[in-house]
Amino acid sequence: MQDLRNTQVTWLTGVLGALAPARKKGAAPVASLAAYVFTVCQGALLSARMTGRVEDFDDAIAHLRSSLPG
User: Fold this and answer.
1) Based on the number of CB atoms within 10 Å of its own CB, is 21 exposed (0-12), middle (13-18) or buried (19 or more)?
2) CA 69, chain centre distance (Å)
3) H/E element, 25
4) Which of 7, 37, 38, 48 could cross-link 56 (Cys pair, CB 3.0–4.6 Å)?
5) Torsion over CA: 32, 42, 63, 18 (sign)
6) Is residue 34 within 8 Å of 13, Cβ to Cβ?
7) Which band of pLDDT confidence, cut at 50, 70 and 90, is reported for residue 23?
8) Which of 58, 9, 69 shows the shortest CA–CA distance to 38?
9) Which 8-state DSSP code applies to residue 52?
């Protein structure tokens, strides 16, 4: 399970780094941002599965998207 998480965070790090190569000074490292994105997505997925409401996932992802730089 940890290997899957590490693989996905590594992939996200590359994607996010390519999308915002010039990060502002003092901004969180791209790897930290990738771990945050992974965690929010997994939590949202788990929550939606528990409640049976896809809207729970959609709402969490909408908030995530609005919190991301760029």
Assistant:
1) exposed
2) 12
3) none
4) 48
5) positive
6) yes
7) low
8) 9
9) T
Q: How far is CA 22 from CA 14, 26, 30, 69, in A?
A: 13, 12, 11, 11
Concatenating the DSSP letter of every residue in 36-48 gives: HHHHHHHHHHHHH
pLDDT at position 52 is 96
Q: Please determine, for residue 1, whether its predicted confidence score (pLDDT) is greater than 90.
A: no
Q: Among the residues of the chain, which ranges form H helices?
A: 2-19, 30-51, 54-67
Q: For the CA atoms of the chain, what is the radius of gyration?
A: 13
In the numeric block, which tokens belong to residue 45? 């997925």
Q: Name the amino acid, one letter, at 48.
A: A
45: phi then psi, degrees, rounded to nearest 5: -65, -45
Q: What is the pLDDT of residues 39-59, one digit of tens each?
A: 999 999 999 999 999 999 999
